[in-house]
Amino acid sequence: MDKTTINHSPSPGALASDPKVAEPVRTEFSWAAARAELDGLPGGGLNIAWEAVDRQVRAGRGEATALRWLGKTGERREFSYAELARLSDRFANGLERLGVGRGDRVCALIGRVPDLYITALGTLKAGAVFCPLFSAFGPEPVRVRLARSRARVLVTTTLLYERKVRAQRAGLPDLAHVLLADGEDGADVRAFQGLLDAEPDDRAPPRTTAEDWALLHFTSGTTGLPKGAIHVHDAVTAHRLTGRSILDLRPGDVFWCTADPGWVTGVSYGIIAPLTNGATLVVDEAEFDVRRWYAILERERVNVWYTAPTAIRLLMKAGPEPARGHDLSALRLAASVGEPLHAEGVLWGEEHLGQPFHDTWWQTETGAIMIANDPGHPVRPGSMGQPLPGIEAAIVRRRPEGGVEFLASDEEGELALRVGWPSMFRGYLDDEERYRACFADGWYLSGDLARRDADGYFWFVGRSDDVIKTAGHLIGPFEVESVLLEHPAVAEAGMIGKPDDYAGQIVKAFVALKPDYVASDALRKELIGFARTRLGPAVAPRELEFMTDLPKTRSGKILRRLLRARELGLPPGDLSTVEGEET
Amino acid sequence: MTTMNKEQIRETVLRVLEDVVPNAANQALEPNISFHDQLELDSIDFLRLMMNLEKELNVTIFDFDYPKLSTLNGCENYLSERLTLAA
Predict the structure, then answer these.
(1) Which of A93, A252, A255, A466 could in theory staple to A222 by disulfide, Cβ–Cβ 3.0 to 4.6 A?
(2) How many Å lie between the alpha carbon of B13 and the closest alpha carbon of chain A?
(3) How far is residue A476's CA from residue A577's CA, in Å, rounded to a whole number?
(4) Nearest CA among A207, A261, A210, A247 for reference residue A231
(5) CB contact, 8 Å: A502 with chain B?
(6) Is B44 within 8 Å of A322 when comparing Cβ atoms?
(7) Which one of 3.40.710.10, 3.30.70.20, 3.40.50.970, 3.30.300.30 gives the CATH number of domain A468-580?
(8) Distance CA A385, CA A348 (A)
């Protein structure tokens, strides 16, 4: 484990001597010290779920509320740390009975219900790998992720199973068990509750090591199928630390993370960080609703709130009226993640919620917050903040011959992080080549373009590739375009992110038709509908435009850069490079 | 402003809905079950539906009233009330 330790001694090293690399904030920081604050397993080793729940029980906090669940229709259930420990033990026992164990993937395709949290924690205790799937994915993204993860178990609901999985089951030979949270035992499914009921609620401590695989999060790139980023149990070191240092979580705090556990934030900060810090996690099953959200903040006496720019923009759109009259005095810290939050959003929080939003930056691959406006410093509105203790960040340019060069303050370049923090992804599943391509000279290259100001604050500029962020969700063009190309009318398809006042960007598709087809409003709707049915609302294009030909390189690669320029009414740039653009 | 009867409002809602969620047309909508549950409308779809309805019917829908419009019947009732008030 020591190989990931970074000790920021002030002694001159390559980094300390390079003035272009951001100085760590606290020089005495070490990951070894952060790790020492965890309990570890009784027999040695490390396990995320053990640190999250059993550790609290052992510390005499078993009766404290771990999870407060608010159902769509007004239902309310609380789970103590002791109950979560027991239920997750049962699920781990159940998995073991099914022959599922170390390294096996357990996927969850389910809304924000208690069984999801039991599944995540139980899977980790069993030594298996928890892989969440966003429930708003359509059948195609679900199939691709189940197949690529080679999932052995899927926890879902009857409705989601019928809509998105059942018809494709034959093509998923590894998927041995489907557990329905609301269903009964059937020919090819089992009742989740039945599995729990049959098991004892105690269990020997897990036997995982810090470097055992724990989490698998799918993310997207410009090309190819989604990538499964692998995280290990040692990630909990960063989850716990950042929960405390950036989200200021203390035992007994009420914490609300609005992110869905179908994405990395909803797991790292929607499950692990609050529980490892002894907080009470509020989970709302319902979708965004202005009045409901203010009511939750007030009624649940939320102390720390972690939400996203899309939600903040929707609150801003609703104006100050719905906030009025709500007592938000319990709120001590508000933070944002998912995409950059503009300065107006930060300041709106201060004015109307009594707290500015602290923007935070991280990625699926980084596993935990890396750069943030931390509670110990004044918020710099519109900025990503500063690198956390233990994180070294730089703005770099990739050299054509390999390696990177460091850029000076205020120069735009790619944001890079020095390798070595515990929640760094350990691979893309079955894709060593793409994993290796993320690193150069001992730095992780994030694909995000940014600049650092003279005070050491980072400012987001854009992406270096063609992925887009819509409502905080990362979408890659390949999934969208390849589904459109399955339609008999479509000859070519290209996807871009079109700026949107609320979602940040929306997916917009450009399509060239085959010779026998004529562009029409009916066909436009048919294609969007076709894509929605397969991809689901989170991924499918919301807008679609026909073109006679899509701009391409000589080798036929769609030039999305030109599609974006066209959409924004910008000059297309230097067209002389078009034919040479092959990367 | 011309007043619309409920039937006309319903037709308008369905037309706007079909533009936001084009695969909605293929499905028989239950008037009292939410669009979200039937058509998997997400927050952004729903926002586009609300904003397009405002534009189409020239009416203001308050953000905090959005939940009242989560079903077809809800839309019909709310919009007919708003249009009557505006008339």
Answers:
(1) A466
(2) 16
(3) 24
(4) A210
(5) yes
(6) no
(7) 3.30.300.30
(8) 18
Q: What is the DSSP letter of A271?
A: I
Is residue A489 left, alpha or beta, with left meaning phi > 0 and alpha meaning psi from -120 to 50? alpha
The strand pairing partners of A387, in sequence order, are: A371
User: How far is the C-alpha of B73 from the C-alpha of B31, rounded, in Å?
Assistant: 5
Q: Is the pTM of this model over 0.80?
A: yes
Per CB distance under 8 Å, which residues of B are interface residues toward A? 18-26, 36, 40-48, 63-64, 66-67
SS3 at position A366: coil
Show the CA angle centred on residue A305, arms to residues A299 and A309, nearest 5°: 120
The domain segmentation of chain A, as residue ranges, is: 2-14+29-452, 468-580
Q: Which of B20, B27, B35, B40 to mutate to test the interface with A (most CBs of A within 10 A)?
A: B40
Same CATH topology for A2-14+29-452 and A468-580: the answer is no
Cβ within 8 Å of residue A370, ≥6 positions away: A361, A362, A363, A387, A388, A391, A393, A417, A421
User: ipTM exceeding 0.90?
Assistant: yes
Residues A298-315, mean pLDDT to the nearest whole number: 97
Pick the closest to residue A470 from A111, A160, A220, A133 (CA basis). Answer: A220
B62 three-class SS: coil
Close Cβ partners of A416 (under 8 Å, ≥ 6 residues apart) = A393, A394, A395, A396, A404, A440, A443, A444, A445, A446
- Per-residue pLDDT for chain B (87 aa), expressed as one digit of tens each? 457 888 999 999 999 999 999 877 656 889 999 999 899 899 999 999 999 999 999 999 999 999 999 999 999 999 999 988 877
Which CATH number is A2-14+29-452 given?
A: 3.40.50.12780
Domains of chain B: 6-86 (1.10.1200.10)
Contact list in B for residue A538 (CB cut-off 8 A) is: 42
d(CA A135, CA A415): 31
Beta bridge partners of A229: A217, A428
Alpha helices in chain B (DSSP H): 6-20, 35-39, 43-57, 72-86
pLDDT, position A20:
56
The DSSP letter of residue B24 is G
Return the closest-CA partner of residue A139 out of A117, A112, A160, A116: A160
pLDDT band at A21 (very low <50, low <70, confident <90, very high): low
Tell me the DSSP string of A70-121: E-TTS-EEEEEHHHHHHHHHHHHHHHHHTT--TT-EEEEE--S-HHHHHHHH
